[in-house]
Amino acid sequence: MTRLLSILLILLGFGCLSPALADVTQVRIVGDGAPTRITIWTDVAETAEGLVTEGPGERKVVLLLAQNGYSAAGEGNGGVESWSLEPGRLEFALDRPMAVTRMLRLPPTGKERAYRVILDLDTISPARFTVAARRDTKKLARLETQFAEARADATRLAGAVSGARKPSGPRKHVIVIDAGHGGKDPGALAVTGGKERDITLKAALALRDLLEKSGKYEVRLTRDTDVYIEHEDRVTLARNWGAALFISLHADAAGSPSVSGASVYTISARGESRIDRESSKNDWKIAIEDGTPGQLNGLLEDLVKRETKTRSAEFAELLLPELAAAGPVLRNTHRNAGYYVLLAPDVPAVLVELGFVTNADDAKRLQSDKGRKAAVTAIASAIDTYFAQQDLRLAAN
Ligand SMILES: [Zn+2]
């Protein structure tokens, strides 16, 4: 069997406004090959060019980048097997012949602060690919030189502007912690006295402190005082902050005082059916849609929503054993519900019921420093595992 080598080269240059070298902060690949969309987030405007080349031995997609550079790698999707980032170069391994059918360079918007380069790939015949590859290979050497010169210029300029530019690593993951209820909304009332809104706030603050101490994350709270925040505003805040994970903290109530234990909720099928309506109502636009024809939007939005749901469930499954090790958990602990705060179409989200305030033991546990610490340590540990797994995916090329 003949193995097809396909190399797609994207050469990224500079916008004229910034002398700084761009860093790629995120790479996302969604789609099924017809089409597949690659989105690259960068901190500086880029000029970019998509190229394909072909040769024996391996199948690849490559992006040449004019960026400061660090190494990272990850798995692909829809015809793209994997990607790897080296200084000045982003490579994608293709498992089929594909063409770049669209290339978009998007400036930051209100919701999306990074610059984005978007590439849509479509599966084509091997014959067509060969023709495109032959054409692009000629361009390649010329562009490579051109971009290398631009990189050198940018390095000199950056050096002149700021002395020596420190190498910057990948941006920290933003974790949004949502303390349930608050202010006029006390939430459930504890049998021991006290209110859910205070239990969730103390837990949120403790979790924030723990995560910030690790230095690994950027942590945001939807509230850090006893105020009421509308549900849609909690979601909107998380999206505007670019949340990589949204964790809503609550404490449960039951008719029977014997019911106890923590539980974790992710979006239910019924809840999912509300996502589109609430998204358009609140302008929660999935960032990748900008400038794309409507027909493609729908498909890609569905893929993002599916990915978000999968990630939410992944995090929930990592969180459960941690919670179980830290204290009692409810039966069928991973549950599904249509809670409003879980409706963001593109932010993985869970709602954690830390325990039952209608159960005396749980109520005492959640209102004690020791119990609170155990709960938030369990959550922080799951967060570490979740992002470690993601970074492992990036590294396991
Ligand atoms: Zn609640």
Quick description:
The protein has 397 residues and is of the alpha/beta class. It has 7 helices and 16 strands.
What does this structure look like?
This protein is of the alpha/beta class and 397 residues long. The chain has 7 helices and 16 strands. It folds into 2 domains: 156 residues, no CATH class; 223 residues, 3-Layer(aba) Sandwich (Aminopeptidase), CATH 3.40.630.40. Helix content is 37%, strand content 27%. The longest helix has 37 residues. The chain is elongated, with a radius of gyration of 24 Å. The N terminus is likely disordered. The protein binds zinc ion. The site of zinc ion has 5 residues, from loops.
Instruction: Name the strands of the widest sheet in spatial order.
Output: 4-1-5-8-7-6
| Hetero compounds | zinc ion
Output the number of helix runs: 7
Please identify the structural class as seen in this structure: alpha/beta
CATH architecture of the largest domain: 3-Layer(aba) Sandwich
Shape: elongated
Helix content: 25-40%
Would you identify the regions where 5 or more consecutive residues have pLDDT less than 50? 1-20, 161-168
Find the CATH topology of the largest domain: Aminopeptidase
| Strand count | 16
CATH top level of the largest domain is Alpha Beta
The biggest beta sheet reads: 6 strands, mixed
Listing every helix as H and every strand as E from the N terminus to the C terminus, the arrangement reads: EEEEEEEEEEHEHEHEEHHEEHH
Mean pLDDT: 81
Radius of gyration: 24 Å
N-to-C span: 24 Å
Percent of sequence in beta strands: 25-35%
The CATH superfamily of the largest domain is Zn-dependent exopeptidases
* Count of spatially separate domains: 2
